[in-house]
Fold this sequence. Notes:
Elements: E1 4-9, H1 24-28, H2 36-49, E2 56-61, H3 70-81, E3 91-96, H4 103-111, E4 114-122, H5 126-131, H6 138-150, E5 154-161, H7 168-181, E6 185-190, E7 192-194, H8 198-204, H9 213-229, E8 233-237, H10 243-248, E9 249-252, H11 258-275, E10 280-287, H12 291-295, H13 300-307, E11 310-317, E12 326-329
Parallel strand pairs: 1-2, 2-3, 3-4, 4-5, 5-6, 6-8, 10-11
Antiparallel strand pairs: 7-9, 10-12
Bound molecules: iron/sulfur cluster.
Amino acid sequence: MKHSNISIFIPHMGCPHLCSFCNQRNISGEKNIPMGEDVRKICLSAMNEITEKINTEIAFFGGSFTAIDRTYMIELLSVANEFVGEGKFKGIRISTRPDYIDDEILSILKKYGVTSIELGAQSMSDKVLEANERGHSAEDVRKASLLIKKYGFELGLQMMVGLYQSTESDDYFTMCEIIALKPDTVRIYPVVVLENTKLGELYRNGEYKLYDFDKAVEICANMLYMFEFVGIKVIRLGLHASNDVSENAIAGFYHDSFREICESRIFRMRVMSSLNERKGDFIIDVPKGSLSKAIGQKKSNVEYFRENGLNISFKENSELHGYCISIKEVN
Ligand code: SF4
């Protein structure tokens, strides 16, 4: 059954830092601060609308939840907690910074029915964390992740691709370190440079050069494949589409179908590495529901294969799963 969230945005409140890429109000697309009564109204209306409550979490996103004023945090949690339990929603999901996790905070979260905690790791390179003014270290991410797992919460880790001063090998290093922490879920955010951020300034004065779009797709496709290969669910790839982001993005990797583009790239890479420089005509089976991904947007993969001497027709095969393919040569 599909998981869903009732998203409640807490814009930038209580956050002790201003990270190089963050223009939080734009990311959350929400400028009002919700109070307990607002949470109650949202949950009451969701109770009427959502039938599969058992797979739904009340999700506080958009800020550093555990860094906000404690009384306010408990007000939000205690109202949300009224809607958790038998016949109601599965639990509460929050996102926060790794340096605002400790035993005391986790005990409070447990008491009020929190089930999942997502940490903004962003990078596991201290050099990159510092250059982007994150205000925490990679070790903070490791310690917080272990503690969250110890308390029995579902752990989510968020990472970014293409941050200021991050090389391709730094990005892959972050992926490997995250895999080693064994989170339940991951979100991958290729950088989007927003107006009124440090990254925006660095980009405009030429100090910050981004990957080209194709390189960002290649890296994110490799990461998506690797995470899923080791059994870590990638629940987001690319920033959510919102009017605020599209109005404020001045550079970076913002595309409504970013994940699908990466999935197409995975099929392209799978075909090219399996055929290993062979040329000719082939029929390739792909999992059910993956035909358009294998073909690529505007038939980009088919075109790419043709340019490489490959005439390929795809068909669906319900026995295949994930990114598996089965190749037959046409004589
Ligand atoms: S920690 Fe999160 S909310 Fe705070 S400035 Fe950084 S990205 Fe924005």
